[in-house]
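Re: the pair you flagged

First of the two:
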Amino acid sequence: MLLVTVRLAPQATLEQAMRRLKLLEKDVDTGYGLVLIDPGEDLYGLRVSEAAARRIDPSAGGGPYADPPIEPYGPPD
């Protein structure tokens, strides 16, 4: 999965983002959902499949951006 961004109206929903980016439910990580990244810019992020990221019109959304797993560094305490 990759991260993409989209500008939407305040208090937007995942469904609105999917419509704006022309995505289907199978293209999106619905468990991750829609995350508000920058409230001042109404910028949201969501995770999509690599195939879906390639189909997104650049004028509708930004990215794709890598989404590497976050893991602890070093041995556990």
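Second of the two:
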Amino acid sequence: MRLDKFLKVSRVIKRRPLAKELSDEGRVKVNGRTAKAGTDLAVGDEVEIRFGRKVLTFEVLELGAHAKKEDAERMYKVLKEEKIESETDFL
């Protein structure tokens, strides 16, 4: 499944265009490598997203084209959520 679609379906990011934009800006990493919106995800992949001064790291647990709101959180497991001091800490 494409990274941008997973982020939307799992409700990590509410809109797919925003997921694509964050990916294209280099603010998303999959398994430690910068990822584009079209990067294919697999179960077990580790995804890291920088939202401003916050970094969210999670593991992909399941893939699905659709998910109800209450089921979306089962698609991933948050590994860590941290605040960063400066923009260069992420790079």
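Residues 11 and 88 are 27 Å apart (CA to CA).

-B.
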